[in-house]
Amino acid sequence: MHILWVILIGLVAGALARLIVPGTEPGGFIVSIILGIVGALVATWLGKVIGWYKEGESAGLIGATVGAILLLAVYHLIRRRSAPA
Predict the structure, then answer these.
(1) Residue 41 vs residues 24, 63, 79, 81, 83: alpha-carbon distances, Å
(2) How far apart (Å, rounded) are the C-alpha atoms in residues 32 and 48?
(3) CA-CA distance, 46 to 67, in Å (whole number)?
(4) 44-75 pLDDT, tens per residue?
(5) For the chain, what percent of residues have pLDDT higher than 70?
(6) Dihedral through CA 63, CA 65, CA 69, CA 75, nearest 10?
């Protein structure tokens, strides 16, 4: 059940990140939501490694959104560098 909660928060975080980070990508909103889910999972994992979250706790909406924004920004940088000039 814990992982489902992280995924649900990731969906919302991805949508918020898409609204915050400007730019377009081929996948559009779907890619942003997937990155939001991954961002929530990474934020939860990183928070546990650092000691911010205990076992069974997940990143909140703010942590997941920050993770999604970072992943979306990295995604834009990678896409921009690999795009033909």
Answers:
(1) 23, 10, 22, 26, 28
(2) 24
(3) 10
(4) 788 788 887 777 766 677 777 888 888 877 87
(5) 81
(6) 100
pLDDT score for 1:
61
Rounded to 5 degrees, φ, ψ at 55 are: -60, 130
Q: What DSSP state is assigned to residue 55?
A: T
Tokens 């377009």 belong to 24
Q: Is the CB of residue 63 less than 8 Å from the CB of residue 46?
A: no
Question: Which of these, 83, 82, 80, 73, lies nearest to 18 by C-alpha position?
Answer: 73
Residue 68 neighbours by CB under 8 Å, 6+ apart: 10, 13, 14, 16, 17, 32, 35, 36, 38, 39, 40
Q: Which of 37, 51, 49 is nearest to 6 (CA)?
A: 37
